[in-house]
Specification:
The chain is an alpha/beta fold and 367 residues long. Helix 7 crosses helix 8. The longest helix is centred in the C-terminal third of the chain and has 19 residues. It is globular and about 60 Å long.
Length: 367
């Protein structure tokens, strides 16, 4: 769920590496009081902060550090000397890690009453604020499937069929939040260790058996989203992608990016979404415990949940705004895929099993 935008017309941005956050902020009283440092993943669009700077008088320093998984890891490593005041981009797949590590100070942001209760996973404690949500799904290159006269896949079961052998690229579940979300979607669909959670599931041996079959069917795994979408996916750049994989794990809202700025507007986006392969992802922001500018951090969180910011989110980060009263742009509603029944897992289940599931996945898929 994220650059000028999570997804831009030329590139959706969510790189994942192990770079280190630069030291943040300025030193000295007045300067510190007027500077707010936002720590985030690479796909947070700095232009969205200009209105906050103009309206509040604060200057925002934006520190980016790859995909959400890496950014959360870095925040945990530096929690005794936090690199900033506010963290943006921890999602429901990683939320329990941040909360268990006591990364955030409680703060109830203004406008929280306009956010559906289903998105408020830390309701009552307010250590984090829900700011957007989206769905991680397999995307497909329409031109490839038209050219080969093959129907694109619709479900997880489709992906392990011989006709799709060697066509899918996904992100590493151990290092990428979209990759982890995709793995969790298979857990939600096939169950853990053989208990199927879906009447349509055919793999028969839980998510572990499903991934054995997906590996045997030639799935490619790369470190992060940017590499998967921009370098390996054939459908990026409106069909001018560098890669040879017509299937990629991305977002249900990726197709509008491929249409952005196109004149005349096409009837449909050049990429589609396999709607039976989706996992609901919710992104949060929070005031970092030990923030040097707590007052400025609270003001920034209020802005991130403001209707003005929330209505800018869809075309800047290509995710859904958390506020239910924020209007979606026509481009987003026309070309984005609506996912009525995404796979989900209870936060408690993710918290209790995530690390074990990632280790099992790594052992099954990467070795």
């Amino acid at each position: 769920m994220r650059t000028t935008s999570r997804i831009t017309a030329s590139a959706l941005t969510a790189a994942l590496g192990m770079t280190t956050l630069a030291a943040c902020g300025t030193s000295g009283g007045d300067a510190d009081a007027k500077t707010v440092t936002l720590v985030s993943h690479d796909s947070f669009p700095k232009p969205l902060l200009k209105a906050f700077e103009k309206e509040s008088g604060y200057k925002v320093t934006l520190l980016k550090s790859g995909d959400a998984g890496k950014a959360v890891n870095q925040a945990i490593l530096s929690k005794d000397n936090p690199q900033g005041d506010v963290f943006f981009g921890i999602d429901n797949t990683l939320l329990s890690r941040g909360l268990n590590e006591d990364l955030f100070s409680p703060y109830q942001a203004k406008g929280l009453d306009s956010v559906p209760a289903a998105l408020q996973l830390d309701k009552g404690k307010h250590r984090v604020t829900p700011l957007d949500y989206g769905d991680i799904c397999v995307n497909y290159d329409r031109a490839y499937f038209d050219r080969h006269k093959i129907a694109p896949p619709k479900t997880f079961d489709d992906l392990i069929k011989p006709r799709y052998k060697g066509l899918l690229v996904t992100e590493n579940a151990a290092t990428s939040s979209p990759g982890l979300a995709f793995q969790l979607a298979t857990v939600a669909t096939y169950g853990d260790g053989g208990t199927s959670r879906s009447s349509e599931a055919e793999s028969g041996g839980g998510w572990q058996d499903y991934w054995k079959k997906l590996k045997a069917n030639g799935v490619e795994v790369v470190d992060g989203w940017e590499q998967a979408y921009n370098e390996r996916f054939s459908g990026s750049g409106a069909g001018k992608g560098k890669g040879d994989k017509p299937l990629v794990v991305s977002y249900a809202s990726s197709p509008p990016v491929e249409v952005l700025g196109k004149k005349p507007a096409p009837e449909q986006a050049p990429t589609g979404v396999a709607t039976g392969t989706c996992f609901r992802q919710i992104e949060f922001g929070g005031l970092l415990k030990g923030a040097k500018n707590e007052k400025g951090g609270k003001a920034l969180l209020d802005f991130l949940l403001s209707k003005k910011f929330q209505e800018d989110v869809p075309l800047q980060m290509f995710v859904n705004p958390a506020r239910k009263d924020a209007k979606l742009p026509e481009l987003f509603t026309t070309y984005g895929a609506k996912i009525d029944k995404p796979a989900t897992l209870a936060p408690k289940d993710i918290a209790e099993n995530r690390e074990q599931w990632i280790k099992q996945w790594s052992s099954l898929v990467l070795k």
